[in-house]
Design a protein that fits this description.
Blueprint: E1 2-6, H1 13-23, E2 29-33, H2 36-40, E3 44-47, H3 53-58, H4 64-73, E4 78-81, H5 83-86, E5 91-92, E6 98-99, E7 107-110, E8 125-130, E9 149-154, E10 156-159, E11 166-171, E12 175-182, E13 185-188, H6 196-208
Parallel strand pairs: 1-2, 1-3, 3-4, 4-13, 5-7
Antiparallel strand pairs: 5-6, 7-10, 8-9, 11-12, 12-13
Helix pairs in contact: 1-6
Length: 216
């Protein structure tokens, strides 16, 4: 199996590669790439990202058409991580409005988390937090339980869109989308590559996942 890990100019690329290799059931080739041609021969595509939305979006220039062809038309399994998930939105509002890939409805905006007494909670949300989901709701969650912990580092989060696309949430001054997905697309707001056993379980499930494929 060949996995293309897109380099948008930022992200824990080496950590993502190591985590994918550890999570795989068998031999895998993980290629970190900025070349559109690499996506044509990949079986699965991963888009990590960290830092600013606009910078990561700019880092995809030259790859957007190939990415669309392989994920939206060829329906290859796709995983977005942190800002790599956020880029699937219609727009990001960090340092002004920046168009996203618009593969899922919704936008990414700065969080305004509050404690029950109204006190602002610190940003970024940084550290381990629970995943809340309905067991059996998606194959990438197989073997996990509500309340399992993942590692988050973010100040911006998804809002709006279709409730059915939200597969898991976390709690930080209220529910925050933690995993979104539709068809052959899945994405995690948390750093799955830093989420220890939970992250490896999700990555392993992603590598085994067989969503419906073929031309759209």
């Amino acid at each position: 199996m060949k996995i293309a890990v897109i380099d948008p100019g930022s992200g824990n690329l080496a950590s993502v590669r190591r985590a994918l290799e550890r999570a795989a059931d068998g031999p895998v080739t993980v290629e970190i790439t900025r070349e559109p041609e690499s996506l044509f021969t990949a079986d699965r595509i991963v888009l990590p990202g960290q830092g600013a939305f606009a910078a990561c979006r700019a880092g995809l220039e030259g790859m957007v058409a190939a990415l669309y062809e392989q994920v939206q038309v060829r329906r290859k399994p796709f995983l977005g991580i942190c800002v790599g998930l956020q880029l699937l939105a219609e727009r990001g509002l960090e340092h002004g409005a920046t168009p996203g890939l618009a593969w899922l409805p919704g936008e990414v905006a700065e969080m305004d988390p509050r404690a029950p007494d109204g006190t602002p909670l610190p940003l970024p949300q940084m550290g381990w937090n629970t995943l809340d989901f309905t067991p059996g709701s998606h194959p990438v969650l197989e073997g996990l339980l509500p309340g399992d912990h993942a590692y988050f580092v973010h100040s911006y989060a998804w809002r709006g869109g279709e409730p059915a696309d939200v597969i898991a949430t976390t709690g930080y001054g209220g529910p925050v989308p933690a995993i979104l997905g539709r068809d052959n697309i899945i994405g995690t707001q948390f750093h799955v590559e830093k989420s220890a056993a939970v992250g490896l379980r999700i990555l392993g499930n992603f590598l085994r996942w067989q969503p419906m494929r073929g031309a759209a």
